[in-house]
Structure formats: structure tokens, C-alpha cells
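Subject: Sanity check before I submit

Could someone independently write out the C-alpha cells for this chain? I want to compare against mine line by line before I put it in a report. The sequence has 246 residues.
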Amino acid sequence: MAPAPDQPVSETGRMPLARDRSRLDGIIGLKRDSTEPWISRYADQIRISLPIIALVVVLAGVIVPMFGEATGILVRKMPLEGDRGHYMRMDRPHFAGNDKHQRPYTVTADYAIQKTRSDKVFDLFQPKADMLDKKEHWIAVTADTGKFDQRLRLLDLLGNVTLFQDQGYMLTTERARIDLEANAAWGDRPVRGHGPDAEVESEGFHASEKGDRLVFTGRARLILKGHIPSDGQEAAPATDPPPPGG
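---
Independent answer below. Compare away.
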């Protein structure tokens, strides 16, 4: 007898398709909860899950490399350049500490480069250092580039080096070293300085660790700023000191 019209017939044409599937499921041990295909039952969940998974993968690839191990500083791995490589670049680094008299200091920069993970010497770009002298006067130092040895607390500065003290004194030179531990500074390049009472030019300088003495080295020229006498006559201009042995 032919099967009922509303029952699908298997390819063999001998029994309904549903009965054929049931027999095959019994042979392989498969239990069907529904005759609806599984991909149809989970189509809505798949459409929602795939975009979320893709977004998580993209965010993980962008955010995770931005953070170094326990540094708390935004870092970026630098590409290799020939036989030289940079371990990481730090944007807006901030180093802080105290000198041997427990006076605070800070060293900042636009960015810094660390060449190896174990190296504690950082190449600084547009560095700035802030510290206090013995009398608690604020001193700021800026330069084009610098190198900061975090272990020795030494700051080497190069290019447009400027030292400013909040009492109105300023020095400019091309190269200087700052000892943050001893609160001292020195330089061996021509230096120009000025303050409320004088202007000076010399071949170098040295600031003592006590912060209350500044020595100008090499040939020096000092100009003292005179005062207008009470009778209205101008003060005599300052002159260069006589040469040695003169």
C-alpha cells in the first residue's frame, strides 16, 4: 500500500522518511530532542555571540600590549633598528625620590626610551627636573635631551640646558650633570647666568651639595648691576677684571 500523501518518502521509496530516520538513529544511538535542525534552533544565539567574540579579540590585541609588567606606565615596544633594539618607550615618564637629606625631587620628560629590560639608564627627551636646595628654594632644570641613571641618581643633560631658581637666578649652558642624591650640579661648557644683582659668563660652573654656593670655573666675566645715585648721575658701567699678572 502506498504511504499517505502527507508523509515524506525516503529515497528508496519503501517507507516514510521519518520512520527511516528513526531506524537510523536507533542503529547509531542518536537521540533527537526535536526534528528541527540544530543550527536553526541556535541561529539567534550565534548571530549575537559572533560579533561579541570578535570585539573581545580586537580589544585584547589593542589594550594588553599597552601595559608593561607592573610598571603602571604607558609603554610601547619599539621596533628593532639594525643591530640595536629598544625594550620599551614610556610616554610622559615620572621618576620621584629623595636626596640624602630627604628633600624630594622629580624627573619628568615628554618620553623616555629604555634599551634593555635590565638597564636602569633611560634616554629622556625634553627632560625636566625639580628639586629643593638647602634653604628650601625651588630649582627647575630643563634641556633638549638627557640620560637618567636611576640607580646612581645622576641626570646628564645636553642641549639648551637651563637652571632656574625661584629667587630670580638662571643659568644657561649646553651640557650639565645633576647629582640628585647629593643635590649638586656642574658643567664644563660655556655658561651664562644672571640674577637680581649681577650677570656672569664663564667656561664652566659647579654648585656645591649644600646648595648655597655656586662656583664659576675657567675664565669668568662678572657684571654687577649698579644703582642710580641720589644726585641723578648714572653709575659707572662695570668693566672686565684685569687679566692675571696684569
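---
OP: Matches mine. For the report I'm noting this point. The longest strand covers residues 154-165.
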